[in-house]
Automatic annotation (TrEMBL):
GO terms for cellular component: plasma membrane. Pfam families: BPD_transp_2. It comes from the Bacteria. Keywords: Amino-acid transport, Cell membrane, Membrane, Transmembrane, Transmembrane helix, Transport. The lineage of its organism: Bacteria, Pseudomonadati, Pseudomonadota, Alphaproteobacteria, Rhodobacterales. CDD domains: TM_PBP1_LivH_like. It is a multi-pass membrane protein. The keyword DNA damage does not apply. This is Amino acid/amide ABC transporter membrane protein 1, HAAT family.
Amino acid sequence: MDAILLQILNGLDKGSAYALIALGLTLIFGTLGVVNFAHGALFMIGAFCAVTLQRILTISYETVDDSRTDFLGNPMTVETPYVQAWFGPETGATIIDWSVPLAILFAIPIMLLVGFVMERGLIKHFYKRPHADQILVTFGLAIVLQEIIKYFYGANPIPTPAPDVFSGSFDFGVLLGFDPGAIIYPYWRLVYFVFAMAVISGVFAFLQFTTFGMVVRAGMADRETVGLLGIDIDKRFTIMFGIAAGVAGLAGVMYTPINAPNYHMGMDFLVLSFVVVVVGGMGSLPGAVLAGFLLGILESFASMTAVIDLIPGINQIIIYLVAIIVLLTRPRGLMGRKGVMEE
């Protein structure tokens, strides 16, 4: 039982990332009808927002420390971050330590701007084009963004640690009555799961309980009728594109302590996230979230040593096998809507 619970927990953080990215993908497809293969790049950009803020906060200047000397007896120079000089050593160190959570505030306006520019500058020209054209142009955009990140940040992963207070592990098993040390789980992975649930709940509440969200949902169901009522639905859909970009970006920001950011991380998650969307059902927001967590947990179980010894390589293909089974039995996915991509 403890092994089962541990694998469920292990699947939650990756499932959270899948669910957040798939949620943004479904928002874009459901509102604009666009298959956005650049959505994984938005996840990557969010991650590098955290990297950028960390670098900004650690910009430093050299000072001479007379109390310390090198082996020749000369005073040593030390690097002092400007943040520590402005706010004091302790406060400055705390700000640097909390750079990843603070990157949420840094990333939100950047991701909204990136989403707005992407939609107004490129995506809007492909609304009425075939899905194949949309896939090609957005996939090309993803490659361009990936190479830009590679040029400025290099090809190697960049470690971006979580705050020290979350650097340890939590003995989850003790709460459930297991022996101490039976289920040890990193604090930050729990934080990421709680964060993902908060974002997902916020998006659903926004769509369900606000006037803006109700209009958007009506536009998703019947765009022409809403337009005939004098509502500028295109403007609202552009805002939704920005929100979807923000969701992907925030998912990337908070994932950086779990997986060190690199230039191809967007592509790594993109294909799997599209599988998640298809399994959940094209156009279904609850389906995207459900499939994200389900496939994340299944991938975790498939990564167990005993399972890999029994079926080598199963952890690499389990998601695709599940997708095949689901689509053979339910062609529209788990919660797909009739008529979506069936013309």
